[in-house]
């Protein structure tokens, strides 16, 4: 599929929301409102560029929140000006699909993005739409009611999809539109409507936050926990490798790979959280490919499997059990190496150590044991 662009308009001040922080910066189920739809776009395979149009006075704040993969530009004085600013920041050919979305609609799914792009194949524009289930009345100035035929009416949501060149041209002459589709309607373009969803509703009033929390939480997957355990025995050698750190020692650890107990246990914890078997299933010791392998690649592979399954690593906790070598002097280096490999903040990575008070095989200094726990947190919904 052709590479597409996306623009999230987040420059509004949200005057109907009352005082308090602008709604794009508020928290919804532990994540900022803007981050919900930004992450949906970033995860979609067809979206090559994402631009967020931020309030003029908070572009730096927005950049910190959404991260460096996203271009942040300042908004204009009207919604239409802000949309233009966002479109101008895309560096894509004129026939590229582009989706324009309101930040105040956090319930964006990958499926909606795909459906809009597909609908664009034989239309000039596409948008999600909902039927109007309630009876509609027109209230005259004297309060007299008259019925409105709701059958032909639709509630139009965002994202709305266009081809970049055509929406830029269509918006050129416009001052301030209710939505971007209006610019295409004005030139008689063919619009294809796809099924909308209540989750795509706009956060407008204070109560909407609670309603949206319920809508999104019932569909949100829950975090997953996994544990892992590993043992390697001492053999000849002059160092051991634990959590990616080489520690000089009078013996080495025997193993097919580099025998990194900490990272083996953690790899198993992540695989366990995913219910995807164990490290031996993925990296069989019988396969010469893994002879003397660095265990970082096992761990990184487990992280990629988590990513594929829609999970990010939340936090990890590794415990090493041995009498020697002493772990404490190397603990910070082990945490740092693990955090670097997994691209996690240091405060989400714990490495601890204990002895077994001289008891058992670790107490007899025959080997080292390790255990680990990992929590995987769901990324935004995928359908
Ligand atoms: Mg092992």
Could you characterize the architecture of this molecule?
This protein has 383 residues and is an alpha/beta fold. 30% of the residues lie in helices and 28% in strands. It is built from 12 helices and 19 strands. The protein has helices at 33-43, 59-66, 79-88, 110-119, 164-172, 181-186, 206-219, 261-273, 279-282, 296-308, 331-342, 360-363, and strands at 4-9, 27-28, 31-32, 47-54, 71-74, 97-102, 125-131, 136-139, 145-148, 154-156, 160-163, 191-195, 224-235, 239-242, 245-248, 252-253, 311-321, 349-354, 367-378. Strands 1, 4, 5, 6, 7, 10, 11 and 12 form an 8-stranded mixed beta sheet that branches. Strands 16-13-19-17-18 form a 5-stranded mixed beta sheet. Helix 3 (79-88) packs antiparallel against helix 5 (164-172) and helix 8 runs parallel beside helix 10 (296-308). The structure holds magnesium ion. Magnesium ion is lined by residues 230, 232, 255, 264.
């Amino acid at each position: 599929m052709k590479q597409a662009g996306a623009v999230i308009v987040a420059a509004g001040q949200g005057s109907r929301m009352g005082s308090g922080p602008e709604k794009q910066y508020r928290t919804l189920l532990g994540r900022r409102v803007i981050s919900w739809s930004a992450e949906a776009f970033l995860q979609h395979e067809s979206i090559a560029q994402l631009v967020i149009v931020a309030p003029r006075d908070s572009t730096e704040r927005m950049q910190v929140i959404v991260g460096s993969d996203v271009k942040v530009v300042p908004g204009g004085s009207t919604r239409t000006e802000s949309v233009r600013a966002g479109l101008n920041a895309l560096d894509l050919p004129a026939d590229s699909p582009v989706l324009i979305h309101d930040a105040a609609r956090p319930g964006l799914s990958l499926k909606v993005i795909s459906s809009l792009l597909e609908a664009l194949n034989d239309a000039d524009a596409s948008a999600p739409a909902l039927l109007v289930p309630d009876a509609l009345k027109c209230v005259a100035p004297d309060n007299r009611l008259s019925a409105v035929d709701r059958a032909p009416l639709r509630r139009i949501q965002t994202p709305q999809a266009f081809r970049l060149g055509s929406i830029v041209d269509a918006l050129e002459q416009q001052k301030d539109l209710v939505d971007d589709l209006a610019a295409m309607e004005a030139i008689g373009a063919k619009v294809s409507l796809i099924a909308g969803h209540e989750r795509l509703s706009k956060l407008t009033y204070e109560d909407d936050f609670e309603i949206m929390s319920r809508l999104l939480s019932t569909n949100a997957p829950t975090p997953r926990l996994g544990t892992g355990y590993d043992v390697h025995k001492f053999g000849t050698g002059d160092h051991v490798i634990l959590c990616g750190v080489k520690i000089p020692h009078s013996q080495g650890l025997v193993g097919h790979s580099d025998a990194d107990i900490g990272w083996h246990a953690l790899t198993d914890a992540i695989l366990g959280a995913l219910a995807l078997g164990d490290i031996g299933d993925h990296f069989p010791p019988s396969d010469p490919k893994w002879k003397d392998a660095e265990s970082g690649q096992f761990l990184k592979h487990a992280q990629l499997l988590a990513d594929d399954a829609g999970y990010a690593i939340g936090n990890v906790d590794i415990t090493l059990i041995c009498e020697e070598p002493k772990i404490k002097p190397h603990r910070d280096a082990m945490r740092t190496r693990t955090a670097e490999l997994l691209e996690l903040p240091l405060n989400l990575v714990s490495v601890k150590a204990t002895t077994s008070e001289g008891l058992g095989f670790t107490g007899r200094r025959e080997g080292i044991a390790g255990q680990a726990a990992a929590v995987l947190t769901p990324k935004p919904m995928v359908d």
